[in-house]
Amino acid sequence: MVSLRSCLKGSFPFKSKKLQRHIRTEAWSLVCKRCESHPKEAMSWSKQNGFYEGNINTSLLPIHVACAANAPLAVFESLLQAYPESISSKESMYGRVPLHLACIYGASLDVLKLLLSYSAKGAQEMDSTGRTPMFYLMTRDPSLEAYECLYEANPDGLKDRDMRGWLPIHVACHLGASDDVVLRMLESYPDSMNIRTAGGTLPQIKESVLTCWEKGGAWNDERDDLDCERQQSITDDDDDGDENVIFRTPSNDSSAFV
């Protein structure tokens, strides 16, 4: 993912708010000062061309831009003090709240905790693809602490299926989340190992994780049959180009703030 400075091309939009300019240039101390002196600018929406993958436009508040910029904790504290309601505001393209974007762009654990302290319901919000923030957290190889932070805010979120029938555990396994995270997800929702995506794919859980889970006494008598089905599912999934790309993270040549 590229920095905001390298994404900018040309001059700022006419009448662009100073707060937005400071975020785009990653002038974090100025962002905090501007929030204090002109808090209403934290309420100002702006259209961002190419925000997603360099060619998909959306309208955002400064807090959404700060999430994409991976701003430090102090910036989020200032933005939320200036406009607390922004925590539940959705960008216009996919209907994502700040917590979605924080997970997409790899925010720190402290930032995740802060966002959830303002609205734990953010962990339950689904975007237009049916995905809660947990789905996107799984694309970032999260720490166990980050996973538990979102899980505690929305335990039933492990059962949420997106428009393609994926569960968060499908994403975690598909994109290589740590064994500790996958094991914790399996312990919290054992039935997830038997659930297929709309394309017929089971979660690609490592044998070592399943063995560890078995030692915890959570296994069942259908292991042999499921192992055969799981291996066939993994083989079939190798040819499923459509499912293999739906959780791509922003590419290095994305222009998020053109």
Automatic annotation (TrEMBL):
Biological process according to GO: actin filament bundle assembly
Per the record's keyword annotation, is Repeat included, yes or no? yes
The source's domain of life comes to Eukaryota
Q: Give the record's keywords alphabetically.
A: ANK repeat, Repeat
Q: Residue ranges under compositional bias (Polar residues)? A: 249-258
Enumerate the residue ranges of region (Disordered).
233-258
From the Swiss-Prot or TrEMBL record, give the protein name: Ankyrin
Q: Which InterPro entries match?
A: Ankyrin_rpt, Ankyrin_rpt-contain_sf, Espin/Espin-like
Lineage, please?
A: Eukaryota, Sar, Stramenopiles, Ochrophyta, Bacillariophyta
